[in-house]
Design goal:
- This protein is mostly beta strands and about 140 residues long.
- It contains no helices and 10 strands.
- A 10-stranded antiparallel barrel has the order 1-2-3-4-5-6-7-8-9-10.
- Strand 4 and strand 5 form a beta hairpin.
- It starts with 9 loop residues before the first strand and ends with a strand.
- The mean pLDDT is about 90.
């Protein structure tokens, strides 16, 4: 059986936007995704993401580090009924209140040459709110 994560292996360009859309918050760049044993390693400009699927449970675990921030994000997730990978984590509240909240990073394979991600945060009222959307286009395998 092929690991769902293998669909992400390759070279990509991306364009990410904040939600609500703010033209001053557009991010573009390149990303390389490789298979390193059991792990998928996603390396971009200033960050590294590592993900692996536990064959016994089917759950996905991982971590993320951004070179400009001292926080190591850890993830636990699964492929949901919608076919997308949902990775849950805890981190600082974006409102700067000094508290932590929940995050859900969603990865979707649109086609062999396009994928998307959505960053969501748990709001104070318990609902999920999107804060970023990114589109990736394959440039090589």
């Amino acid at each position: 059986m092929t690991d769902w994560l293998d669909q992400m292996v390759g070279d990509w360009t991306y364009e990410g936007r904040s939600v609500p859309d703010d033209t001053e918050q557009v991010r573009t760049g390149v990303e390389r995704v490789t298979r390193q044993g059991a792990w998928i390693v996603i390396e971009g400009e200033g960050y590294r993401f590592q993900l692996a699927t536990d064959p016994a449970t089917g759950r996905v675990t991982g971590d993320f580090v951004h070179w400009e921030h001292p926080l190591l994000w850890t993830y636990d997730g699964a492929i949901k009924a919608d076919g997308r990978l949902h990775l849950l984590s805890h981190g600082p509240d974006m409102q700067g209140q000094g508290s932590e909240t929940e995050y859900d990073d969603i990865f979707e394979i649109v086609s062999p040459d396009e994928r998307r991600s959505i960053g969501r945060v748990r709001a104070a009222d318990g609902t999920w709110q999107d804060f970023s959307r990114t589109i990736y286009r394959r440039t090589g395998r």
